[in-house]
What we know:
The protein has 548 residues and is an alpha/beta fold.
Amino acid sequence: ERLDYLEELRIRYLHLMPLLATRDGEADGGYAVTDYRAVDPSLGTIDDLEHLCDELRRRGMSLCVDLVLNHTAAEHSWAMAARAGDPEAAALYRIFPDRRMPDRHERTLPEAFPELAPGNFTALADGRWVWTTFHAYQWDLDWSNPAVFVEMTEVLLNLANRGVEIFRLDAVAFMWKRLGTNCQNQPEVHDLLQALRACARIVAPAVIFKAEAIVAPDHLPAYLGTGRHHGRVSDMAYHNSLMVQFWSSLAARDTRLMADVLRRLPHKPSTTAWATYIRCHDDIGWAITQEDAAKVGWTGQAHREFLSDFYSGAFPGSFARGELFNHVPETGDSRISGSLASLAGLEAALEADDPHLVDEAIARIRLGHALILAWDGVPLVYMGDEVGALSDRSYADDPDHRADNRWLHRPMMDWDAAERRHRSDTVEGRIFTDLVQLIEARRRAPQLHAATRLEIVDSGDPGVFAFIRPHPFGALTGLYNFTEAPRSVDATVVSSVAPQGLVDLLDGSTVPVARAIEVPPLGVRWLVPAETSPVTVPPSPVSLGHGR
């Protein structure tokens, strides 16, 4: 019923959040799967899923579905058989006869949810202990058992035969366990993913793997394939570092850390793409190390605490309205929940009834969307962000959700708000039009293809983030002002790639390179050489709004 709306946004990739059968009550947002071959009955049937895939393909869209690889629900038939004493079923999981091995592992294991679910192991009624990285009702699979690989390969191929074209491989960093480590990012994970991909290539060669590995920057490239795994692991991976650095730079009004961290990431294989995003269904964890922070004269712990204070609204002068998630008093570390619009200042601006603050919040949203649309990957927009959905604080009234404030940014879609998307006098209309114009500009720019390299350059101003996307048709230079004041960038930043002058793809303006280039407050410029520019006039907001 809503596919016309997606077509209006030029959507070609639809990721429906967990839709497979899950346990009743608390289910980690659907990531506690009880049956990989059935759809949650409240959503429909497996045949309905196949019909949806057919209709999406007819419209040129691909469906992405979550495949939870690290664990199943405790109510999965495998787990119930293991609990009943079936040795083959028990061998599919990490189950221990007593606490001796779990205690040895716990010495080096962090806790995923220290407040919600402390510890990494759960006691069974018969005295055994099962590995439960995330929640007591999510049992970790034992991927050292070949039977697990066979079972999950069959699951994957069954869904591919139903028409699923993209698989979001959930929690892949945790798949392999090794005593004495944090049991994340182990080398065997990449062996397993390469083997799964090889099986999929034989049966369903068009299937795409997207790795959900929310890890430190140093570990991130491996999920697209490095060394002997180069280009053979996943086709896509979430660019968590880009998301974290966007929010860090926005709060600090300083892009030096962002530029340094992202510049040091190795180039990805040209056959792969980053999944770029500003917000998603999950919290924001501040993956900023002491080593990275020290390079710009900061302290990692202090900066992480600043970001948590800022985005929870506790820091004086903050524009954000988020909530702390998973606060750890011993370390001071926290994560953040909240929608894009609320974290970007729109909620506070509307509460204050201040048009200037509303303008700034909308500009921050545009800044974020422009960043993910210009990066070397596939930009992902979280449902509702296209019309400025605010955080939904009613989650606290739901007994199944109130203990997990990530439901703050998991609201039901407000279709009444979406109906206002064509009105230029509404917040929804302004944000929607901004996004569609950015998408249209991206479609006109071959420089922004995922296979084109991205080179971060020094803008000469800590408040402005800059990069170049080299291309035979002429390089595209992106300039992003993370401050609320106008900034000037020396023309030498781009003069070597555009000696004859520039055109801004976002507004059609001509930009001479003989002087400084102005970047408005919280503004963006996508500059290409004038002699190769595919556009001189920006597209009509009206025609874009109707998507035809």
